[in-house]
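Example (one chain per record):
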Amino acid sequence: MPTLLPPLYEGHAPTMLHQAFHDALEAYEGWAVGTPEPSVDFEGSPVFISAVFGRMRTCTDILPVRTLDAVRDIAGASASELSEDQVTYAHAALLLRALCVERLRS
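Predicted structure:
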């Protein structure tokens, strides 16, 4: 499945990537252990959630508090270093991508 995600511009993601991140976060929440990695729709094409998180790993945009709360719910103790002060999409994306890789290995 080719990655069709647009690049960041000076550390900032276009709104469509922010939405893809939120869609990927929801898909991760519903990902049952032992099932294939979910994908999200991005402009009519499926993209693996790990690819979305990977693209956002250098995004300097500030993560909304409600999204931060969802990341904390998913990551549990792994998210302990994520404080509410100036957490970026990059912080969450690195953590979530690592969780995807871990789940795919098991």
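Caption: The CA atoms of residues 34 and 63 lie 29 Å apart.
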